[in-house]
User: Fold these one by one.
Assistant:
Number 1:
Amino acid sequence: MRYECIKCNSKFDPHEKLYTCPRCGGLLEIELNLDELAEKLDRKRLKTDPLGVWKYRTLMPIFDDSKIVTLHEGGTPLYRCDRLAEEVGVRELHVKYEGANPTGSFKDRGMTVGVTKALEFGVKAVACASTGNTSASLAAYAAKAGLRCVVLLPSGKVALGKLAQAIMYGARVLSIRGNFDQALAIIRRVCDEADDIYLLNSVNPFRLQGQKSIAFEIADQLGWEVPDRVVVPMGNCANIWAIYKGFLEFDATDITGGMPMMTGIQAEGAMPIVDAIKRGLDEFLPVENPETIATAIRIGKPVNGPKAIRAIRASGGTAECVSDEEIIAAQKLLAKLEGIGVEPASASTVAGLRKLVEQGAIDGDERIVCVATGAMLKDPEEVIEVSERPLEVPAIYEEVKKLLRWQHAP
Ligand code: F0G
């Protein structure tokens, strides 16, 4: 196992605590010795062991099993959604429901690995900047590990459920008068200067190794087949890369064959990567004041932008942006047609898919997986805001009965 810079290809010892390339500043990636691991993989057990991140232990970059910090993350449902598929106009649609993770988002997959690495590195504390979910997840795993936790959040812009989680799990929560991009710049500096605080934002390549298990589980749940396309919301742009990487590793070890077209969705008010993909640029232009109802992906300067661009181009995928109205409509479709409650960022995948099908950019004959990254109750205020209020009625039988006339409608 080694760190490898995606820009200059320099390699580094994985026992060193690194975030970016010490030579050129580029993003680092963890490269496993896949030929060796392919021999070690117990393929029979892969067919029988229960689903979850640690089912794929052989492909996880951990040195010391006794340090593993787990809340039993992963093993989330892959729902086949026929009613939604018909509505959107595709043959076969599945939703990977990451809201079923211990803290309600996919971040737990990254934190089980990331916080385990924090213990391996022997640090005293962990830290992150966050639009909400990362902080909730990190706080929970830090609690489980007995580590101190510091989180920086953009003031007034974090969904209530996420904020409640970070506080209750015992993190030191600082509300920054600024946006996520500014908070991240500050916490990166703090962690660069303090040797005993480990940064667990998605610039940390070990965290993404946990998140690649989304790809492993999708293939596993589809009977060891790769879907034609995987649709992912993009914020700081790490998850789309992690999922791409997971499929690459399964392909390289012959567990599956082929790659899905990685398709990234951003909100209209925060779409630097969609812009770069559409214009064929190698580098993206940051958005100074990102804005969207999907606060999880309200990010203008995604640190992992170069990885997302690479994953989308290399897999023959695409990218699209969606308006807040389209996100809300998709959130309601998921809930009302399939019983799947998601937060707005997750709904952007279905909104984006719908738009791409309407444009004719996606063939309706594909087998598609949308990754629903976080649970609906992460952001209860948004749900109430976009929904009809309950009707208040007197506690009188006749009054209630009158209002339920639809029961007798033909
Ligand atoms: N969906 C949800 C629910 C998220 O919380 C995030 C990111 C994303 C999608 C985008 O993933 O950043 O890997 O492209 N949330 C981060 C946070 C930024 O701080 O919780 P990404």
Number 2:
Amino acid sequence: MTQPFLSIRGIQKVYGSVTAVKNVTMDIAEGEFMTFLGPSGSGKSTTLYILAGFQDPTAGDILLKGRSLLATPSHKRNIGMVFQRYTLFPHLSVGENVAFPLRIRRRPQAEVADRVKAALKLVRLEGFEDRMPANMSGGQQQRVALARALVYNPPVLLMDEPLSALDKKLREEIQYEIRRIHQETGVTILYVTHDQEEALRLSDRIAVFSQGEIDQIGSGPELYADPATRFVAGFIGDSNFVDTEIVAVDGKQARLALPGGGIIDGVPLHGAVRVNEKASLLLRPERIDLQAGNADGLLVGEVRDITFLGNNIHVLVAPSGAEPISVRLPFGHPTLAGLAPGAMVGMTFNAYDAHAFAS
Ligand code: ADP
């Protein structure tokens, strides 16, 4: 078996009575863009700080090309870092900020000048060497931080919510730049965010964190199409959850009774659920179809609200005895003609698009 490039093995971190990270294990390939995604407090930053060497784990190990990093102090790990708040030295020019990692490595002046120039070019700030950080926008300052982190060609770059202080438009612009820089340099990136859209846009794979553990690791499409847990299903993509009852179980599939009496067979089943127990059924708003009238449909309900969202239409449908369900139809869908709040509609969906979770 080939040796993984970066290996996080059974990392745990306990602070007094708080277990910030319970058990995190993953392998990261060279050149991969891996994102830690999860809500606030789920242990993403703590895991990243342990990689950076700012914290020691209570248990577990980190191996880079098969060698443990734990005994190596932070500044000798050769890992680049970019954080949420601008961490530039305010009294140093842009050029000197970027040169800093090379100066502490005592690189010759000619090499420093060349590398600073190349790093600033990489982040599209050519010629900004003499500017002071205070005279730059937030986005520009984060680009300088990125140039400084990459100037000595570290094999691994850690980024902790680097864009969260920027407004949406600037954030998207710099996301694009980060992608380009990742492709151009081939650096392995570990990126922390709580923003699913950012994670989907940037990553090769995403590790979904929940309460100090990883629920699932996969590409964006894998997590969306086949979520391993209800938490992942709710965190990636838009979702409805419907309370159902298990009628029969056949291996990894279930037959479910829906609110209102509809029955659906062949729904992929996650977790240990038994006949007659309750299960939570995931329905993606864009994978539900609507028919006018109440004759057809696995679920029948009353239209509560219709919202035009440009290329699609959001319809909120309330089945009796269940929470309202969000449905997204493409513009021009035939059922939309003449549809108004108060109308009864039938909802249909394919069993293989849905997922049942133990609830
Ligand atoms: P995230 O990055 O996902 O928001 P963190 O890794 O920052 O999560 O935190 C995980 C948990 O550990 C939280 O409950 C947080 O309050 C706790 N925690 C983090 N750092 C410390 C610390 N230095 N001392 C005590 N508890 C901490």
